[in-house]
Amino acid sequence: MLEAMGSLISNRRVSTAISFDDFEEVMCDLCGSLATKRKSTGKVVCLKCEEREMVERVMAENEQLKRQKPFRLFDQNSLLTPNLRGAAFENYYPTTLDLGRAKEKMSHFAETFVPGSGENILLTGPCGVGKSHLGAAVTKALIKKGHSCLFINVPKLLSKIRATYNRDPEVTEAQWLELLETVDLLVLDDIGAEYRGNHDAESWAVKKLFEIIDSRQGKSTIFTTNYNSDELTKHLGSRNVSRMMNGTKVLRMPGPDYRLRNLGGGQGA
Ligand SMILES: Nc1ncnc2c1ncn2[C@@H]1O[C@H](COP(=O)(O)OP(=O)(O)OP(=O)(O)O)[C@@H](O)[C@H]1O
Ligand SMILES: [Mg+2]
Ligand SMILES: [Zn+2]
Q: Which pLDDT does position 171 carry in this prediction?
């Protein structure tokens, strides 16, 4: 037994012993600088190449993090229902010509998007025609191109901001406002919906909303609403609506409610 152990130890000693004669200087096949070759194994070590590989690896990791940044920002801060997370142009099936045109215009907007162009769109139409779907589809397309985007349900946002006043918030009001101000594209979904029963155009909610809209001067915003201009004016006040419509194209989306498409009776297409 002892003998066996002794031979094991001496074997190991033999196999790990390093002799200087085992090394020779060679030229690196890859970069041509001086490298070291271990004769017994044939392995060549080039410090220059190792360093370059390390730098390349770190740069690739950084690049990947940079590419993921818009996805993370969107995932962590957007306020949207789970059924809209999968919304894309590819899975929007227009049921009328008008809706087909709306899809085309929104997809053209995404294709030609230039951050800082200040181009805004207001999508207006009845329930379930896909206003939110197309808004979310634009964010999806732009995030893939590396632009920062947020999809924000306005009523939810306002209650989140309101909640920051009462307890220690995860995201403070100032952080929300900065996020909303700085993203390349902001979707303000369901604007006007939070004013039910509170038609005061000077309410806290309306003031907060216009603080956000004003902060986006020169940036692009997509608004979606169920309301026509008269109804919006009633909820927001004419001064606010005219500020919101500054540089904003209106895209009307009349059509049947997609959610009711299987009910028949002339509702769905
Ligand atoms: N043409 C369509 N093709 C595929 N899915 C659609 C289509 N239209 C709507 N949907 C889906 O139906 C649901 C309702 O659409 P969406 O929420 O976009 O409607 P909306 O116009 O925003 O309605 P609301 O005014 O109630 O907010 C979503 O899950 C959306 O993905
Ligand atoms: Mg909607
Ligand atoms: Zn080398």
A: 82
- For tokens 């893939």, name the residue: 144
10 Å Cβ neighbour count for 155?
18
Mean pLDDT in each 10-residue stretch from start to end of the chain (269 residues)? Answer: 49 63 94 94 95 94 87 87 94 97 98 95 97 97 94 91 83 90 96 67 83 94 94 87 92 95 60
At 196 the pLDDT is 54
Distance CA 226, CA 216 (A): 22
Q: Which residues pair with 222 in a beta bridge?
A: 121, 187
Q: Which of 124, 131, 133 to mutate to test the pocket of ligand 1 (most atoms within 8 A of CB)?
A: 133
Distance CA 240, CA 203 (A): 12
Please tell me the distance between residue 262's alpha carbon and the centre of ligand 2 in angstroms. 19
Gyration radius of the chain over CA positions: 30
**Domains of the chain: residue spans and CATH:** 78-260 (3.40.50.300)
H-type alpha helices, 183-248: 204-215, 229-236, 238-244
* Inter-residue contact 224 to 65 (CB < 8 Å): no
Query: Is-contact 150 144, C-beta < 8 A?
Result: no
